[in-house]
Structures are given as C-alpha cells and as structure tokens.
Amino acid sequence: MQPDPIFVIAAALAVAVILASAATHKLRAPARFASQLEDYQLLPQALVRPVARVLPCIEAVLAFALLVPAARQVAAFAAAALLAGYALAIAINLWRGRRDIDCGCAGPQQAQPIRPVLLTRNAVLVGLALVASLAPLSRALGVFDGFVVIAASAVALLIYAAADGLMANSPRLLKLIGR
Amino acid sequence: MEALIVSNILLWCLLIALAFAVMGLVRQIGVLHGRLAPAGALMVDKGVAVNEPAPQVTAADRSGRPVNFGYAGEKAQLLFFLSPTCPICKSLLPAIKSIAKTQAHRLDVIYVSDGDMDAQKALIAEHKLEDATYVVGPEVGMTYQIGKLPYAALIDNTGVLRAKGLVNSREHLDSLFETEHLGSATLQQFLHNSQHAHGAHNH
Fold first, then answer.
1. Where are the domains of chain B?
2. What is the number of domains present in chain A?
3. What is the band of A132 on the pLDDT scale with cuts at 50, 70, 90?
4. Could you give the C-alpha distances from A137 to A2, A9, A71, in angstroms and in order?
C-alpha cells in the first residue's frame, strides 16, 4: 500500500531539519565534536579528525537532498543508515559499560550521558527516515496539502525538541532526588 | 467541507502553539535544574565576625575612583568577591545583577576581583558590568579574609557586617538577606535563640 504524499514529505522535512541542525552544531564547534567522537572510542586515532570533519558535511548534504523530490528516496535511506549507525555507536559503548560519556546528540546546552533511552530516540528517527523513503501515491497537491505538510513537520520538530529536552533533564532530575 | 477545512487549520495552529508551550516548559525546567546545581560543602570560616562593625578599607575601582568599604553611608553594601577564572562566579552574575537592580534604592553592589586585567575586561564585557562598581586588587579580599570564591558579604548602612558566606547558588545569596533580616549569623544560632526565647516565654 502506498502512503499519501503528505506523510512522506512531512517526514522528509522533519528529518531534514533535524539533520541540518545537527550539522550546524557540529560545524560550529568542530573541536568539541572531535573530542566527543574520540570519547566513543570506535575509530583509530588517525581517523577521528577526518571523520569529524566529513560527518557534518554528509548530514548537511542529506538534509538538502531530502528536500529534492528526485533524490528523496536515496537520501532517506542514507539518513536512516546514518542514524542507525549512531544508534549502533551508542549501543556498542553501552555494551562496553561506558555510560559516562557525553552523547553529543543535541546542541551544546544539552550534554547528556548515553543511556538506553537514546536508542529508542534513534529508533524513532530511523522510523521517520524510513517513512520518508517510501514511494508516495501520486496525486495533485494543493495549497492546503502544503500547509498540512509544514504544520505537521513543525509539530513533529517541536515535540522532538521537547522530548530531547526532557531526556537531557532526566539525569539531572535523578541526581537531584538522589538516585 | 468548508467547515471541516477551517476546523482542521484551526486545530493545526492550536497544536503548534501547544507544542511551543510544551517545549518552553521543558526549557524552563532545564534552566531550573541549572540553578539548582549541587551547592558544594560549606565550611566553617574565620575572619570578620557577623554583627560586628565591618573592617574599614578603601580601594580604587577599575576607573581609579576610591570606593569605601565598611563605612556608614546612605545605602547598605553587598560585596561580591569573584574571579574571571571561577565558573560558578560567572553563573551567579545574573542573580547578583537582578539583586542590584531590584534593591538599587537601598543597596550598592560592589564586585571585588583580583588578577589579570585582560580577563577582567573580558568578563565585564561578557556580562555587561561596565556601569557597575568593580574593584580589582587584593586589599579588600585580604582585609575580609576571603579564602574561597564566590563569596559575598553584606554590610548595612551603619557599617556593620550583617551577613557573609560562600555563595554557590541563588539560594545562598537569598539566605544572606535572610540572615540580615533575622539578625543571626547562622541558622543554628537563630534556632538556638528562638528556642531560648520560646523557653523563656513558657516559664
């Protein structure tokens, strides 16, 4: 069954904005991102700097490609793979028992240690990217469809930001109530 | 059909507004967590006793004007001891500035720091303290025997030291004014005094 284009385009728009914001955070503070990447201890030392430089560029390109209808499907698969890769990196470090490293998930104000709940967050994002990769039903789109797409992705992004904030707050809350 | 479209648009707008409100709430909780950060161990300190006349000292502020500490004057003085190298000091500056603003009619806030002048200038520019009285030099800190930062001392308008202490959070700052209000140097002393008074009342 083919989904309505509204779902696909709204999902693509939301993933594009999330990737673009992630890319700008990383490009604005390359040194911080490089040290976060180093903390994950997944790459040989020589590769850390080049990868830290290339990853934000890939994110930015994918964000842009998601908005181009012709490239949407490929870009959405690539974005899903990238987000799944991040989840894998977190999972490996959780499995190693290194729960004290900074996730580097959101901006500089939201430093948070890696926790299993972050895997859920990435799973949701991968799901969103996979929705964006589906081939939509072809139908003519009007102004109202455009409005619904923008409104839906705006709500999705705001709720994502709120959920991200709640996740960043929860370790601090646990510390406050002494657990 | 028309009514359905209108209702749909209205619902989307309200949903966006609601999502904004939720995000705002989450951000505010984050700020509160930041303000409630662990305070650190308090210590018993020596130096000038509370409720005694404050030591009198004069030092030049950043622009060379003399500033009197511990003299009787029109307004009470809040001395905030800080350093550009102390991150907690910086996180307290917004609270200090808001106190300076709301209590301007009865309180002069004086920032006392020591060390590298360039770092001081950067701190002043970053936190917009250009108009504040900002003293750089070791004299005041040595007179008041300040060992730890951020530290604050409250001197009333008769030149008596009313409260002092290590301030790690806004709560600690507020407790300085509470101390002034209660007239006791420490909470323990206040409890002791009030128990005493209570006991006397019963007899």
1. 57-191
2. 1
3. very high
4. 5, 11, 17
Q: For the whole model, what pTM was predicted? A: 0.60
The three-state secondary structure class of B155 is strand
Assess whether pLDDT exceeds 70 at residue A146: yes
Reference B117, options B140, B136, B139, B133; nearest CA is: B136
Query: Looking at chain A from residue 90 to 129, which residues have their Cβ under 8 Å from any Cβ of chain B?
Result: 109-110
Percent of chain B residues topping a pLDDT of 70: 83
Within 8 A of A144 by CB-CB distance, chain B residues are: 5
Chain A hits for B11, CB-CB cut-off 8 Å, are none
Structure confidence at residue A126 as a pLDDT band (50, 70, 90): very high
Q: What angle do CA B172, B176, B85 make, to 5 degrees?
A: 55
Say if residues A17 and A145 touch (Cβ distance below 8 Å): no
For the domain spanning B57-191, the CATH number is: 3.40.30.10
B39-49 exposure pattern, b = at least 16 Cβ within 10 A, e = fewer:
eeeeeeeeebe
pLDDT score of B168 more than 70: yes
Nearest CB among A147, A155, A166 relative to B26 is that of: A166
Q: Residue A134 in contact with residue A15, Cβ under 8 Å?
A: no
Structural domain range at position A94? 5-176
Average pLDDT (B190-201) is 55
Between the CA atoms of B159, B161, B162 and B163, what dihedral angle is there, to the nearest 10 degrees? 150
Measured distance CA(B40)–CA(B53) in Å, rounded: 29
